[in-house]
Amino acid sequence: MAIEFRNVTKTYPDGTVAVDNFSLHVPSHTCTVLLGSSGCGKSTLLRMVNRMVDPTSGAVLIDDDDVATTEPVALRRRIGYVMQDSGLLPHRRVVDNIATVPRLNGASKAEAHRRANELMEIVGLDAAMARRYPRQLSGGQQQRVGVARGLAGDPNILLMDEPFGAVDPLVRVELQRELQRIQTELRKTIIFVTHDIDEALTLGDQIVVLKKGGEVAQIGKPQEIVEAPANDFVAQFLGLDSARRSLNAAPRDGGGWLVSDGRGRPLGVVDTVPDQHTDTD
Amino acid sequence: MEWILNNLPRITDLTLAHLMLALPAVAASFLIAVPIAWAANRVRPLREVVVSGTGLLYAVPSLPLFIVLPILLGTGVRDTFNVIVALTIFGLALMVRSAADALDSVDAGVRLASTAVGYSPAMRFFSVELPLAGPALLAGLRVVSVSTISLVSVSAVLGVQSLGSLFTDGFERAIIPSIAAGIVLTAVLALLLDLLLVAVGRLIMPWARVGQS
């Protein structure tokens, strides 16, 4: 399912403009990352898709249907939503948290639980966790439950609002890898909000770099953004101007090459450096 | 002790009468306070007015209220209904603020998440906000329960039968064991009801006691 933002603007009663005349096409079965600092309106844009926020003007369309014509509660039940700090219900066991949407959609308890168990396997949660309460899980496990809950209603669209923002870097990388694996199998239309450039480059099929007020600084594939930042803002966001992404390799005593960035900060080691390409033909 | 054993049937009757006055009042306070608290939280500018306003009801002296209410309700002074209404008013004075704070304390992230996954506002209230406010509601209810059990005794002055009657009779007739029994049994009853509430809370809110892993 493709999502289309058509000239959406969101102005709050106090005069704050969260998003100003934003347009974007989100292709089906791909992951689009909205990347920007806090206050750029990225979460507001995300919430317009499931009508947690209604635009002041403009429209959001899902497969050419204006979401404003769909009843919000029904709309939300067919769109997955994963948020920071998981947002799990602390008084429900893990299995019941995951079963929430199927239950809301009228599935029997047994059927919803069967679905929940299926999803626990998909997101890599041990079956023993099912009877626990969210509070008894680690941050990373809670986020997995959050992802499972988002997927439980088998939605075509998955909205992810900085879902891995609150977990430590190691777990974050693991969760990103899991999400990639799940996405290759399930191929949902994902909108993923983050302020983490590395996360955006890892997960995005398409990255939208946002300035304040939802102004688009650049739209492109990860490679395009890194190779050809459209302006200083994007370059700065990527850390290009601070030489974070211009890499050098120096031979090591023990063999191999040490890779460092433009500031001399060591990044890692490679065994071999590809031969310099020369125009031979 | 001998006096108590000799008067056991009467003490049992009075204990039951005491409960028949206290329990309906505690239940009514709770059931009326929750919707008031919900509404007060919804209409933000009115919240403090409603919450403080009902709180002030507690300042009304109990004895005059027991006497004035029958005039307003058209019941007799010794009508148990009169007593229950008065006790409910005092219960509300305590419970509305507790309930308003309890409902307010539900985590904003959880509210947002439950809206996002597709709870309708009514379902969200009953299956998310109300249960999560449960432990704080229970704390408020325990105060109301103890306070009501003790307040019931005042109605004995009007001649409504309760454990307070042991106190008033004993005082008039100078029977010390009766006075002592009245005081002790009221306290024991308050304690038992409190334990019962805690037990019910543990039963219906098992999640509230699980710690961090």
UniProtKB/TrEMBL annotation, chain A:
Residues passing through the membrane, by range: none
Alphabetized UniProt keyword annotations: ATP-binding, Nucleotide-binding, Transport
Top-level taxonomic group: Bacteria
Family annotation (SUPFAM superfamilies): P-loop containing nucleoside triphosphate hydrolases (SSF52540)
Gene3D superfamilies: P-loop containing nucleotide triphosphate hydrolases
E.C. no: 7.6.2.9
Any matching Pfam family: ABC_tran
Family matches, as InterPro entries: AAA+_ATPase (IPR003593), ABC_osmolyte_uptake_ATP-bind (IPR051921), ABC_transporter-like_ATP-bd (IPR003439), ABC_transporter-like_CS (IPR017871), P-loop_NTPase (IPR027417)
Top enzyme category: translocase
A GO molecular-function annotation: ATP binding
Residue stretches making up the ABC transporter domain: 3-238
Name under which the protein is recorded: ABC-type quaternary amine transporter
TrEMBL record, chain B:
Residues of the ABC transmembrane type-1 domain: 15-197
Lipid bilayer topology: Multi-pass membrane protein
Keyword set includes Transport: yes
Keyword Transmembrane among record annotations: yes
Biological process according to GO: glycine betaine transport; transmembrane transport
Localization of this protein: Cell membrane; Membrane
Family under the similarity heading: Belongs to the binding-protein-dependent transport system permease family.
Protein name, UniProt field: ABC transporter permease subunit
